[in-house]
């Protein structure tokens, strides 16, 4: 039966539904260091976790005192290196995520993935893990579909458009970074869930505005009172 309270689960990709073992941020740091000759602290990269990747690169360059105009150059290197890294060490779905998404959809909750990746990277990731927006999901929103990435709430609003959900009180947002939960909070989502399966710790997520912390997306159906069978 359809769930009367939540009609949309807007889920992040890397670290939330897909385990890519933190590759994206290691590759980003390496690309910036190689192109600038500057050392980049992990804490600086962490500030930009969950945002659009080109935007993150530009933000880190500015923080380093580098020319922001170099962002395109660094992003091109990053994109090439990330593709190679994912071919070498293919991402997989996090444990229990496939079953959780199936349960949500079986109970009338649409599932739309929303991400700071570009569309080509996101679609390649979905193909790698064996997911299709034609059969396994209800949509995909990427950074290229909005004017600003997280922590702005526009990815979530676009996910609502795709799912034809008009009320933010019928939306659950889940992500593994502070910027994910900030975006969910700013969107006004009923449930803003920080998951501990990815980039940020319980202390980091706990300090950001949220409604619940969970071990992972596999626990979302139970949060909503949905159980298989």
What distinguishing features does this structure have?
229 residues; alpha/beta; Rossmann fold; DNA polymerase, domain 1; 2 domains; two-stranded antiparallel ribbon; 8 strands; globular
Overall structural class, as computed from helix and strand content, comes to alpha/beta
Query: How many strand elements?
Result: 8
Any idea what the CATH architecture of the largest domain is? 3-Layer(aba) Sandwich
Count of discrete structural domains? 2
Strand order of the largest sheet: 5-4-1-6-7-8
> How large is the share of residues in beta strands?
5-15%
How many helices? 10
- The helix fraction, in percent, is 40-55%
Biggest β-sheet: count, sense, barrel?
6 strands, parallel
General description of the model:
It is a single chain. α1 (23-36) packs across α4 and α3 crosses α4. This protein starts with 7 loop residues before the first strand and ends in a 6-residue tail after the last helix. With 229 residues, it is an alpha/beta fold. The strands form two sheets. A six-stranded parallel beta sheet has the order 5-4-1-6-7-8. It has helices spanning 23-36, 42-47, 53-63, 71-88, 97-106, 119-129, 154-163, 178-187, 202-206, 220-223, and strands spanning 8-11, 18-19, 92-93, 110-114, 139-141, 171-175, 191-195, 212-214. It is built from ten helices and eight strands. The radius of gyration is 17 Å and the shape is globular. The protein folds into two domains: 8-20 and 92-223, Rossmann fold (3-Layer(aba) Sandwich), CATH 3.40.50; 23-88, DNA polymerase, domain 1 (Orthogonal Bundle).
């Amino acid at each position: 039966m359809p769930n009367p309270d939540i009609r949309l689960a807007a889920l992040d990709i890397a670290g939330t539904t897909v385990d890519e073992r933190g590759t994206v941020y290691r590759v980003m740091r390496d690309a910036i260091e190689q192109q600038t000759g500057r050392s980049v602290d992990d804490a600086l990269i962490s500030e930009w976790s969950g945002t659009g990747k080109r935007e993150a690169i530009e933000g880190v360059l500015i923080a380093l005192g580098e020319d922001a105009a170099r962002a395109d150059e660094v992003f091109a290197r990053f994109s090439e290196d990330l593709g190679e890294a994912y071919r070498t060490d293919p991402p997989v779905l996090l444990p229990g995520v496939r079953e959780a998404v199936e349960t949500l959809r079986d109970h009338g909750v649409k599932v739309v993935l929303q991400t700071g990746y570009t569309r080509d990277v996101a679609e390649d990731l979905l193909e790698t893990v064996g997911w299709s927006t034609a059969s396994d999901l209800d949509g995909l929103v990427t950074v290229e579909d909005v004017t600003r990435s997280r922590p702005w709430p526009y990815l979530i609003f676009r996910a609502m458009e795709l799912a034809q959900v008009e009320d933010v009180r019928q939306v659950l947002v889940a992500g593994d970074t502070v910027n994910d939960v900030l975006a969910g909070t700013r969107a006004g989502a009923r449930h803003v869930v920080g998951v501990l399966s990815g980039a940020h710790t319980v202390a980091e997520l706990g300090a950001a505005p949220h409604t619940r912390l969970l071990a992972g997306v596999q626990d979302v159906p139970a949060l909503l009172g949905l159980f298989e069978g």
